[in-house]
Amino acid sequence: MAAVAVAVVLWLWLWCWLLWLLWLWLLWLLLLASVAAVAVAAVAVAAAAGNARNVVAADETTDAIECTSIMAAEPAGGGKIWRGSIYKLVWQELAVYCACYTALHSTTQHYTASLSHRWRGSIYKLVWQELTVYCACYTAVALVYRFALTEAQKRIFEGIVLHIDQYINLIPMAFVLGFYVSIIMTRWWDQYITIPWPDSLAVFVSSNVHGQNDTARVMRRTLMRYVNLSFVITMSMISPRVKKRFPTMQHLVESGLLTEQELMIFEILNAKTANPKYWLPLVWAGAIVTKARKQGRIRDDFAQKTIMDELNNFRKGCRLLLSYDYVSVPLVYTQVVTLAVYTFFISTIVGRQFLDPSRGIKGHKVDMYVPWFTILQFFFYMGWLKVAESLINPFGEDDDDFETNSLVDRNVQVSYLIVDEMHEDHPELIKDMYFEEVVPAALPYTVASEQYRANQAINHGSTAELKVPEPLQEIMEPIIEEKSHSVVETLIGGLVQEKYKEVTVKVERKASQPDAQSVSSRRSSGASGIATPGRRRKSFFARVADKMSSPKLSRVPSASGSIRTIRSLKSAKSLTRQHDRLAEQVGEGEVLERR
């Protein structure tokens, strides 16, 4: 029995694999057939409309250039509507397939075809195991339904299939997967741009830490060694690739990034606290910068601050990488998405079975045997999930993860090259080839890039082509709106206007009468022969009265207008009482001023 079971399993697995290969070949043939059909249709339309240009081959060795010219050609009268439109894109693709299909494929494969044949980092490598298991399970259920069940059991099974197929689409697969993959992709790219690069710091060190002797060289190289040491320690904490390359601190000593004395300091600090010490080399680098400033190798404080700021930015990048490693995507959401996908496709193993056509069940008129579109759905949805899973940790060991080891080597080489080999060194200053011309008209083009010369566009803004008619360009006079200057203009009216006039006359009369103190002062000043001004400065209340009697305040609505404005006699009487009190205050103020 065991041998029979193994044989059946192997047979099922082989059958599923053959179906998978057949599906790939059918998909490829379908793609070629559709391209050929569209190409033939395009040729017919072009011949009928007369818009396609005839391409004459000038030389058999320039087939690729002819293909480029076909793609760049535009039908006569195309103009701006043709350039950049979907018609031009489709026409170019059809021209390639019709005119130079052999020339293109004799040297290189089409981009889509070359991508579909890749295995490393492809979607086929991610989902082939799950797809094989899915096809095997689907086949097993189909064989049981067709050959192992009785008629009564088939009726029950058919009811289960219809029930599952009715409710299986209630799972919002596209929404759940789309939102999840969007979060993962954003996080993946954010982690990449968070990676600290030592290039800017190396340029600052090379430009500001001066000196050609061995001491200055050691300072610059040690600064960059500490920076790269901090980066390697950080990467070894989050990347398995770097951890396998530098499993212990002793391996850093053997690689030349750490010395024995510095290793002893690490060990002493590790005995005091177990916290990560990726920042320790940057602290040493800051001390070296301070020492270089005291020795005069860094000429001013601003240069020192620039280097220290860049060191701090590098430390911040390392800290963010550790934060991304420590705080991952919530496990709950990952579980929800994974369970939703796997539950959906486990249900399709039963819900997408083809039933007996003789039963006349709606939607099951034909027995297709192989669920092609369900397999496609599994391929896309499961591939979507696998892509998200492979991008959760971009510092892992998957095919599409970041090459952290090559990044470590690159940083060390570039850092030493900038601060040592290229320090205070540059080519001889000579006149450029456009020195006399000042501004070149355009840089030269090659034959392959000649087609892009006419597509140059200067960004003048989206309103560059907007034309304003000349009658609408006339400048209009500004509209000045008169604002309300007081409650008198807007609410009161003729009733309160009379009271204001009385108060104004009274204040002006009292202000025009000089007091005894002012008369005596004028007399004394005249006796001494000192010239006195011919007019005494008005009091505060007099100036208030002048403002109240100004032309702006004199434009008060008439009595009829005030009657329409004031809604009740009670409000008018209240305003009158307020201005009576104002008049009393004016009189009291004059008395106090004289005193």
Structure explained in plain terms:
By secondary structure, the chain is mostly helical. It has helices spanning 2-49, 63-72, 79-82, 86-99, 101-107, 111-116, 123-148, 151-167, 173-194, 199-208, 214-238, 240-245, 249-255, 260-272, 280-294, 301-326, 331-351, 372-391, 404-421, 487-492, 494-512, 516-527, 540-548, 551-554, 559-565, 569-594. Helix 10 packs antiparallel against helix 16 and helix 10 (199-208) packs parallel to helix 19 (404-421). It is extended. Residues 508-595 are annotated as: Disordered.
- How far apart are the first and last residues' alpha carbons, in Å? 128 Å
Shape: extended
Number of domains: 4
Largest beta sheet, briefly? none
Structural class by sheet pairing and helices: mainly alpha
Number of strands: 0
Report the average pLDDT across residues: 75
Strand percent estimate: under 5%
Spell the H/E element sequence.
HHHHHHHHHHHHHHHHHHHHHHHHHH
> Helical proportion?
55-70%
Number of helical runs?
A: 26
Integer-rounded radius of gyration? 44 Å
Low-pLDDT residue intervals, each spanning 5 or more residues: 51-80, 93-108, 484-492, 521-534, 552-569
Subcellular location: Cell membrane; Membrane
Protein name: Bestrophin homolog
Membrane topology: Multi-pass membrane protein
InterPro entries: Bestrophin, Bestrophin-like
